[in-house]
Amino acid sequence: MTYSIIGSGSVGAAIARQFARSGITVGIANTRGPQSIAPMASELGDKVVPLTLQAALDADVIILAVPFRAHRDVAQAAASWKGKVVIDATNAYGVPLSELDNLPSSAIVAKAFPGASLVKAFNHLPANVLAENPLGAGGRRVIFLSSDDEAASATVAALVERLGYAPVSLGKIAGGGQLVQARDRSWAPLIFQDLFKKEQ
């Protein structure tokens, strides 16, 4: 299984830090090219590999860590998304409901990636918290997931575990997934909830 992160801002860098900490190789790309990511990758170590956008799209699992509206540009960069797992870490705060057709933002993202299996994850914590060691408070920091594809959700849950977090499934996007999706200028109830799952 190969992984890449699209977006090298605060969220993308925070997730890359967790891959490096866990010893899992991940590619990272943005629209400015690999040279713009080189200093961050150098700091994090050889598990974080700067890539071109096209090279990053070859991964099996692709994490979208871009501003919400930029997902369209990423979607158009690949000829086919068939068989890919796309992790939607975006937040649509401030995007009018009319622009979303009154749907959950992840449903809009999923439409832009036909053939891919979309999982909502990694979007509910601020970047500075996401960058912290997920082990603490006698347990592991929770990452919420929601997806309409059970197999893809299981794939992402396994990755979340490998990164040291505790995955908590919220079910399908239209149901539990609404609990972690911003709508217009409102934050959903589970956004910013920094929760830990106690070890048994």
TrEMBL record:
Q: What are the protein's GO molecular function terms?
A: oxidoreductase activity
Would the keyword Oxidoreductase turn up in this protein's UniProt record? yes
Question: Which key words tag this protein in UniProt?
Answer: Oxidoreductase
Organism domain of life:
Bacteria
The residue ranges crossing the membrane are none
Is Transcription included in the keywords of this UniProt record? no
Extract the SUPFAM superfamilies matched here: NAD(P)-binding Rossmann-fold domains (SSF51735)
User: Could you identify this protein by its name?
Assistant: Pyrroline-5-carboxylate reductase catalytic N-terminal domain-containing protein
- Organism of origin is Paraburkholderia sartisoli
